[in-house]
Amino acid sequence: MAAPDYDLFDEQGNRKYLTTEERRRYFFAIDRALVKSDDREKRTFALLLYYTGCRISEGLAVTYNNIDFGAGGVIFRTLKRRKAVHRFVPLPPTYLAKLDDVHKVKDFQGGRDKTKAREEIWDFARTTGWRTIGAVMAAAGIEGVQATPKGLRHSFVIQHQELGTPEHMIQRWAGWASRDMMEVYGRAVGQEETAIAQRLWQH
């Protein structure tokens, strides 16, 4: 069951998720925020969270072997479970190509030293991951409690709800054991709620 006090708003009523427009700004701010030559790996990490809605620790735990080019996605080890649970989340072909270009994933997967393929792709610390996402949010002009990796995760779920993605798929991609959390995400308001209301207005 979802925690009864869990909500998408803080005690002051500030939303904890990005709107569709903020997600768009985040995406286009990645290259602008991470401009250094050695920021290429940070850019792919910022995109991973955007495309998958994974938790920041789940993203940092991804190994070269966890990228499945045949199926077209990534395999996460789901956190907050009592036993080891893995989930597959699809990724765009363009992003998979970028991953291979920047990180040489296929080279690691096909190398003779199989231990290398089990190493983590992003070798920086969690604090660096947080700063990376924060830098992109700042460049996108996004401020507030939603300007966090968790805000990006929340928005991933909400946008899929808007698009009509089947709930069982959203649940699986988010790594939830039950569908109870879907009820929490149904509380999103603002532009997202207005978009739903417009379906009636159009009739």
Automatic annotation (TrEMBL):
Gene3D superfamilies (alphabetical): Intergrase catalytic core
Entry keyword set: DNA recombination
Stretches assigned to the Tyr recombinase domain: 13-198
Record InterPro entries: DNA_brk_join_enz (IPR011010), Integrase-like_cat_sf (IPR013762), Integrase_catalytic (IPR002104), Tyrosine_recombinase_XerCD (IPR050090)
PROSITE patterns documented for this protein: TYR_RECOMBINASE
Protein name: Tyr recombinase domain-containing protein
Organism of provenance: Neolewinella maritima
Taxon lineage: Bacteria, Pseudomonadati, Bacteroidota, Saprospiria, Saprospirales
